[in-house]
Amino acid sequence: MGSDEIASNDSKNLPMSTRVEENPPNSTTSLLSSSIKYPKPSTSSSVLFSLILTTCVALFAAIAFALLFYSSSKKPMSNLIQENAMLLKKLKHPVVIIISSDGFRFGYQFKTSTPNIDRLIVNGTEAEHGLIPVFPTLTFPNHYSIVTGLYPAYHGIINNYFTDFDTGEKFNMGSHEPKWWLGEPLWETVVNHGLKASTYFWPGSEVHKGDWTCPKFYCQQYNESVPFEERVDTVLSYFDLESDDDIPSFMTLYFEDPDHQGHQVGPDDPQITEAVANIDGLMGRLIDGLEKRGIFDDVNIIMLGDHGMVGTCDKKLIFLDDLAPWIEVPKDWIQSYSPLLAIRPTSNHSPKEVVAKMNEALSSGKVKNGEYLKVYLKEELPSRLHYSDSDRISPIIGLIGEGFKVEQKKSTNQECGGAHGYDNAYFSMRTIFIAHGPQITRGKKIPSFENVQIYNLVTSILGISGAPNNGSMSFADNIVLHRH
Ligand SMILES: [Zn+2]
Fold first, then answer.
1. What's the 170 CA to ligand 1 centre distance in angstroms?
2. Would you state the pLDDT for residue 340?
3. What's the pLDDT at 271?
4. Hey, what's the torsion of the CAs at 181, 184, 186, 189, to 10 degrees?
5. Which has the closest alpha carbon to 246: 198, 184, 186?
6. Is 406 helix (H, G, I), strand (E, B) or coil?
7. Among this protein's residues, is 139 annotated catalytic?
8. Residue 173's closest CA among 199, 218, 205?
9. pLDDT at 63
């Protein structure tokens, strides 16, 4: 999943050719939230009408009393679930499907015709200039921030691989022991409320947490060889379950593309355009399947990515061995090189001194590309990165310039391809965010935001209370419709 180390021989780092003429058409007033139709009461008989009215008032009072009664307990049918269910035609409860297209850099949607994605944008809410990933802009940290609302320092997945220095144990993308995965992911929150959740791949989804035990029927074990179409069809098949209670309230769906191609050829290559068209086709398959079941307008779809992609190439390299006249930075100090440089010096070296010496070297003008790397004690990183408050994070972190790579020493490897993991302030690291559905404001553009907001967005749509997290409670108010 999101192998971040792939390099290829191709050099294709042309400027991004965004085709503005393919911007989705402007939404009109008919797409606004006011287009929801409410049934009008019959006027044929005033007696009948008042009878119905009385019944409604009585029913409403009964429901209100019931809600009051249950509101403090952990019950699936909370106040908001019932309110939100009133927006639905066929389904009995709100459903959110969250779809991740790995490495879908913001702007890829303009590379080719994407009629299905455009349809979601025009009738839904879109982050107009993309979704901001968390730092480091890597696959595992970001996917887990999306489902927990926590920055990596707090959810524990601080890199795709790392070592716990208290125990010496190593985490990698196949580690499913609960101890690594902190926080409360959405599938756990959902099942803790007595609702069903399903995962068709997502980092962390196979980990047992709370009432979530990754049940076979609802939780697929990661296998990248499963065709994308099969993944979509399985998600659709959950809507065919006989009992409404068995239809998951929350579902995930994951595609490895276009990250896979992006690493090999960089963000600007016909292979990316082709992968984007394919992802759009899969969204079409999902929409068609929902329409055939008469529930497209009943299902909330959130389409997003985990991070962007930037071209990397031969000349954009920084070699740690070039710092030797100032300080030796040996290989066994390095927890990860690129695009997140993480250094843990042995205990006889003061991290503060190492940082000072390294920065002296890098700013001397004598280290090739030295100006594109700056190292920090993790506590002194810009606070906007939220990347210090965890023992798992190495004491020294290097911020590498966009598209540059750090290596130990010169090699004969060809180094052209694509990468991500850099500072999340780089526009190239942004990805997409589109939400569409009965509880989503139609035809709305919102400013870019960090993906830690998505946890609260989903719990708000589902009408359940969530775990504490780094998102803001008011964020969902911009997007989610509730019928009061
Ligand atoms: Zn990724």
1. 20
2. 96
3. 97
4. 140
5. 198
6. strand
7. yes
8. 205
9. 53
Average pLDDT taken over every residue of the chain = 87
Q: What is the pTM of this model?
A: 0.83
Residue among 321, 352, 325 at smallest CA distance from 334? 321
Is residue 51 within 8 A of residue 428, CB to CB? The reply is: no
Q: Quote the ligand 1 centre to 306 CA distance (angstroms).
A: 6
- At 17 the three-state DSSP class reads coil
Report the pLDDT value the prediction gives residue 37, as an integer from 0 to 100: 33
Which DSSP helix (H) or strand (E) runs through 21? none
Nearest to 481 by CA among 84, 101, 6, 11: 84
Q: Residue length, the chain?
A: 484
173's tokens: 């993308």
Give the per-residue pLDDT at 482: 73
Task: Considering the candidates 114, 139, 199, 312, report the single residue annotated as catalytic.
Answer: 139
- Report, as ranges of residue numbers, the positions in the chain whose pLDDT lies below 50: 1-48, 51, 56, 65-76, 484
Single-letter residue type at 212:
W
Q: What radius of gyration, in Å, describes the C-alpha atoms of the chain?
A: 25
Distance 305 CA to ligand 1 centre (A): 8
According to the model, what pLDDT value does residue 22 have? 29
Cα–Cα distance measured from residue 435 to residue 99, given in angstroms and rounded to the nearest whole number:
10
Separation of alpha carbons 58 and 258, rounded Å? 54
Nearest to 133 by CA among 447, 423, 446, 476: 423
Identify any residues that bridge with 304 across adjacent strands, giving them in sequence order.
100, 433
Show the tokens assigned to 456: 């609260």
Among 424, 414, 387, CA closest to 315: 414
**Cα–Cα separations (whole angstroms), residue 108 to 200, 272, 273, 274:** 24, 8, 8, 11
Q: Report the distance separating Cα 119 and Cα 114, nearest Å.
A: 9
Residue-level pLDDT at 43: 38
Under DSSP, is residue 36 helix (H, G, I), strand (E, B) or coil? coil
Convert 85-114 to b/e letters by CB count within 10 Å (16 or more is b): bebbeebebbbbbbbbbbbbbbbbbbbbeb
Ligand 1 centroid to residue 102 C-alpha, Å: 5
Crossing angle of helices 270-292 and 115-123, in 10° steps, is 60
Q: What share of the chain is helix, strand, coil (3-state, %, to 5)?
A: 35, 15, 50
